[in-house]
Amino acid sequence: MSWYSHRVERDLARWQAAGWVSDTGATAIKSDLAARKSAISAAGIFAILGAILFGFAIMSFVAAHWTAMSKLSRLVLILAALWACYGAAGYLSVRKLDAFAQAAILGGIAVYGAGIMLIAQMYHMEGSPPDAVLTWALGALLAAGLAQSRPALAAGFVLIVVWTVWERMLIDAAHWGFLPVWVAAVALAVWLGWRPGLHLAALSLLIWLTPLGFFVLGRHAHWLVALIGAGTALAAAVAGPAIDRHLPAAHALFAYGIAAAFWALFTAQFIDDYSFFDHQRARSVGRLLLLAVLTLAGLLAAMYWALQSGNRGALWIGYAAFAAEIFALYWRTLGTLLDTSLFFLVAAILVSVLAWVAYLLHQRKLLQGSA
Amino acid sequence: MSMTTLRKLIIALAAVALAQTGVLAAMVIDRTLLLKNGREITLPIVPVDPRDLFRGEYVRLGYEINTVPGALLVGPPPAHNAAFYVTLEKNPQGGWTPVKVSAALPHEPNPNRIVLKGRSRFLTSMQVRYGIESYFVPEGQGKRLEELARERKMAARVAVDARGNAAIKGLIIDGVLQYEEPLF
Questions:
Q1: CB A124 to CB B182 under 8 A?
Q2: 3-state secondary structure of A339
Q3: In degrees rounded to 5, what are phi and psi of residue A237?
Q4: How far, in Å, CA of B119 to CA of A33, rounded?
Q5: Is A18 among the domain residues?
Q6: Per-position DSSP letters for B21-67, written without gaps between them
Q7: Contact A328, A269 (CB under 8 A)
Q8: Is pLDDT larger for residue A40 or for residue B36?
Q9: A143 in reach of chain B (CB within 8 A)
Q10: Does B131 contact A65 at a Cβ distance shorter than 8 Å?
Q11: Yes or no, beta carbons of B168 and A170 under 8 Å apart
């Protein structure tokens, strides 16, 4: 049973006891919940996991370079496995075993990747390894589009992330070629109407975006990423209802925007100058103080808005980011330990005053409500 | 699922399998043509640091031509990891020496010269990779080849096509062709 239906049943018992919901109404709601059982079944999950394991089996087989079989027969074996996977997907669809059909498509994508590796091994090809990953990713996206397969799209997102991270390592520059492929994958997720796919899209873009400051505009341009993240969060907060009319995504956009902005500010404070690992290399304390105040104030504002708009995801990101920020400050220290202590004391007083103001506002609202 | 959507799905699955088979086939054909029709050159293998030679299940092959003097560069320097072209000239010892580096594919009518496509991560030292630096071996055989490379004179027979792509055809140990690669 899903978390959602658990919660509804718990609330239903309370509403029934209060007399707001009739007994017949409660029974109808319960049977509706049972009928709309989650599409994700244990069988589906295990089938997907099985396909992933199968994929690793065939990739290890290729890596083992087993010479008891000739090159040609290994190639034929891989191609036969490829066709068997997609054939099985078709057969399983006919038998209405959709979860298993999806797993078979995923298996086909894994075999395709193993085929690329086998050919590279057969001919001692080196080339540029990310190109091979891109070839694999495009095969996964093709399967996702033609067979309308969500697991294939998930595999595609994982592969384009591997591709861009690897390519960026090699070219040591911003990898703009990622964006058109990413847009194509997002278009697929929208077309398939797959909400978790949009989360994968956001996460993969986040992985691409957050280190961008290291590669553009003088290689310390974390402010750019922070502005993009904060701008996204602000737009999601201001234009939330307008966005939600098209696609209920304002909450998620706000949360991802906050995550990107925080990570960029954290990078600018502690990672960019290696000060987290080596205090000697730290830039000026004034700069760190300014960024720390900006980060903490921004996080408080974001958490306030998350509470107001009922955005639990953003609230949790806010808590985690707040904790990470103060631990890093404590570790890195603002000047001397005594200065750091003073900073935390001032911050504590300010946040406590904020808490008191929030309490007074809440009380006044309650009084107005009862008057 | 209705009959028509099911039929569509099966056609889609066949199209996916066909397209992916096509990509794999194109890779094989591309390599086969290169090995069959490419010009053949022999490059002496220099002993690489033995600790580095055996990594996983492939042997790392080092060549004299991996080190290219930066002064040979003609025109603008290539970007990181972007492909560029190294012109080699036959030397009296029977090996090949880099004589020119360029971002565009040069036309070389001189039969004593050949052009190889390479990539380099660190342009200052010009350590160039031609895609022929890894030799994949069956599980457990890397050690043996590593010892051979240290003790004997080794060279690689390499096929090069008109676009500068290179592929290993086989390994020559003490003047005898061993480890010859069948096309399939």
A1: no
A2: helix
A3: -75, -45
A4: 59
A5: yes
A6: HHHHHHHHHHHHHHHHHSEEEEEEEEPP-HHHHEETTEEE-EEGGGB
A7: yes
A8: B36
A9: yes
A10: no
A11: no
Across the interface, of A87, A148, A171, the residue whose CB is closest to B79 is A171
Residue range of the domain that includes A16: 1-38
Contacts of A283 (CB under 8 A, 6+ apart): A273, A275
With contact defined as beta carbons under 8 Å apart, do A300 and A354 qualify? yes
CA–CA dist B123, A339 (Å, integer): 46
Distance of alpha carbon A362 from alpha carbon A360, whole angstroms:
5
Burial readout A268-301 (b: 16 or more C-beta within 10 A, e: otherwise): bbbbbbebbeeeeebeebeebbebbeebbebbbb
A60 touching B (Cβ < 8 Å): no
Q: Could you give phi then psi for residue A105, rounded to 5 degrees?
A: -65, -45
Total tally of structural domains belonging to chain A: 1
CB-based contacts of A331: which residues, under 8 Å, 6+ apart? A276
Looking at the domain assignment, is residue A1 inside a domain?
Answer: yes
Q: B122 to each of A174, A349, B71, B79, how far by Cα in Å?
A: 17, 52, 15, 10
Strand residue runs (E) in chain B: 39-46, 54-55, 58-60, 62-63, 73-74, 84-90, 96-102, 113-120, 128-129, 134-136, 154-160, 166-173, 176-178
pLDDT higher than 70, residue B49: no
Per-residue pLDDT of chain A (371 residues; tens, 9 = 90+): 466 777 888 888 888 888 888 888 888 888 887 776 655 678 888 999 999 999 888 888 887 777 777 888 888 999 999 999 999 999 999 888 888 999 999 999 999 999 998 888 888 877 678 888 999 999 999 999 999 999 999 999 999 999 999 988 888 888 899 999 999 999 999 899 888 899 999 999 999 998 888 888 877 888 888 899 988 889 888 887 888 787 778 888 899 999 999 999 998 888 877 655 555 555 677 888 888 889 999 999 999 898 888 888 899 999 999 888 888 888 877 777 888 888 888 889 888 988 888 888 878 877 776 65
CA distance A200 to A97: 25
Which residue among B1, B19, B139 sits closest to A142, beta carbon to beta carbon?
Answer: B19
The structure tokens listed for A104 are 């078979």
CB contact under 8 A, B80 and A119: no
CB contact under 8 A, A143 and B16: yes
Q: Parse chain B into domains and list their residue ranges.
A: 1-37, 39-178
* Residue A20 is assigned to a structural domain of this protein: yes
Pairing assessment for the beta strands B113-120 and B128-129 based on DSSP bridges: antiparallel
Question: Which tokens go with A169?
Answer: 């390592």
